[in-house]
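Chain and backbone:
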Amino acid sequence: MKLPALLALPLLALAARAQTTPPSPDTATTVASAPEPAVETACAHPFGLYDNMELVYRLTNGASKPTGELRYRVVRLGSELNKKKTRTTTTVLLKSGLYDVKNRLLHQQDLTFRCSRDTTFTDGLTQFNPESLKSFRERIFDFAPINIAWPNRPTIGSRLPDGGSVVQVRSSAVDIAKVSTLAQKRRVVSGPEAVKTPAGTFQCYKVESERESSTKARADVAFRTTVRVIDYYAPAVGVVKTEIFGKNGKLAETRTLAAISKGK
């Protein structure tokens, strides 16, 4: 079964251990958005995340037909000190689960978000698409995620660093291919503006980028696909909506924040 390319998207927010009986994509709980915390305190709880908190994103195709859900659950918040012990970085360990419209679990993975000073970094593995490795059987995969930066105070017109995932495919004796999914040419184009979702209405910045998926078997041979992506980013919550456009310029996929559940 083909996985939605949205599994690769930033995202952001989060997920988790698979639920025993996952809710139907058509009945995701709608909740009112809570007041957004001051940006100055964002690194204490990046994107307003707390232990056991859960977020649900509803996935749809270009015709607005449901294709599944992406769920995140916060497992643990922690902190790290740099070697000089002069800077503290907040860490958030998450588990994500991708489900199809029949509530079947398609993919799970662990993610780590970080926040330091004025920037939150989402795990580059949010861009990873498991479909990209299906043709490689009985191989060794070395993952090298590149964190994706989200400023707590975005500036209109600013360029954001690239990020995503790179996977080296190899056997025990030789490298075979390099598979990557990267968010490139990221730029804050406008905002803030109100964006309405089933989980509430949020003040968002519009961030445009190009997502390049590449499989490179040799130095002179690479297969690439590039699509246009628009993220609607609320600094206190994360990305609340993502739109992906196909080669023809038409909307192909959407990911929308459907529910936020506080930790128990």
